[in-house]
């Protein structure tokens, strides 16, 4: 399996926020922003692996600034770290006021995705090759976050019983 460059899977999604994305106060729902975060992360994971990938975790997301109807929202995502079957993807959300052109950093999050084979089992993925100083720093920071996530996950781990609909006869 060949290593890949981070730029091979980077993605930027842009979408104008419409009334159906908002709450009664005219702000865009945080849940809608989270949906964009997950979509952008999933696209990066799929581009990197060319496999079905599922969201395993979403690290903390702070909403730094509100998003309003009429704003153009950008979800900028790239891969930070690869493990054997999982990868961390960073997503930055920005809003642009189309009347003024002002860009505002709305929030950032780190997501972990796991690649699955045809039997829905975790499978090995290509490794990334951080090239720039920024990519190398993100890689090292992501490695530390992964260690913390794994330590925290041990406290909450349980075994899920299979769904009857998924049991193969």
What's the quick description here?
By secondary structure, the protein is of the alpha+beta class. The chain contains two helices and seven strands, in the order E-E-H-E-E-E-E-E-H.
Helix content: 25-40%
Biggest sheet architecture: 5 strands, antiparallel
Global structural class: alpha+beta
| CATH T-level fold name | Thiol Ester Dehydrase, Chain A
Q: How many domains would you count in the coordinates? A: 1
Shape: globular
Tell me the distance between the termini.
33 Å
The portion of residues forming beta strands comes to 25-35%
- How large is the radius of gyration? 18 Å
What is the average of the pLDDT values? 92
Strand order of the largest sheet: 2-4-5-6-3
**Which series of helices and strands comes N to C?**
EEHEEEEEH
The CATH homologous superfamily corresponds to Hotdog Thioesterase
Q: Using the 3D structure, state the CATH architecture.
A: Roll
CATH class categorisation: Alpha Beta
The tally of helices reads 2
- Beta strands, count: 7
Low-confidence region ranges: none
Quickly list its features.
26% helix, Thiol Ester Dehydrase, Chain A, 2 helices, alpha+beta, 169 residues, two-stranded parallel sheet
Task: Describe this structure as you would to a colleague.
The protein contains two helices and seven strands, in the order ββαβββββα. The protein has helices spanning 30-49, 133-156; strands spanning 4-5, 11-16, 52-58, 72-82, 86-96, 103-116, 128-129. The strands form two sheets. It has a five-stranded antiparallel sheet with strand order 2-4-5-6-3. The protein has a two-stranded parallel sheet with strand order 1-7. The chain is globular, with a radius of gyration of 18 Å.
């Amino acid at each position: 399996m060949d290593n890949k460059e981070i730029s091979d899977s980077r993605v930027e999604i842009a979408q104008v926020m419409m009334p159906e994305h908002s709450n009664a106060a005219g702000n865009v729902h945080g849940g809608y922003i989270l949906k964009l975060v997950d979509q952008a992360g999933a696209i990066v994971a799929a581009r990197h692996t060319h496999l079905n990938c599922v969201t395993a975790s979403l690290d903390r997301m702070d909403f730094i600034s509100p998003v309003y109807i009429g704003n153009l929202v950008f979800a900028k995502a790239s891969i930070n770290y690869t493990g054997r079957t999982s990868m961390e993807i960073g997503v930055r959300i920005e809003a642009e006021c189309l009347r003024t052109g002002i860009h505002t950093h709305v929030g950032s999050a780190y997501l972990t995705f796991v690649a699955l084979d045809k039997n829905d089992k975790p499978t090995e993925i290509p490794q990334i090759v951080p090239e720039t100083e920024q990519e190398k720093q993100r890689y090292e920071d992501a490695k530390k976050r992964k260690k913390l996530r794994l330590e925290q996950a041990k406290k909450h781990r349980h075994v899920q019983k299979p769904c009857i609909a998924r049991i193969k006869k």
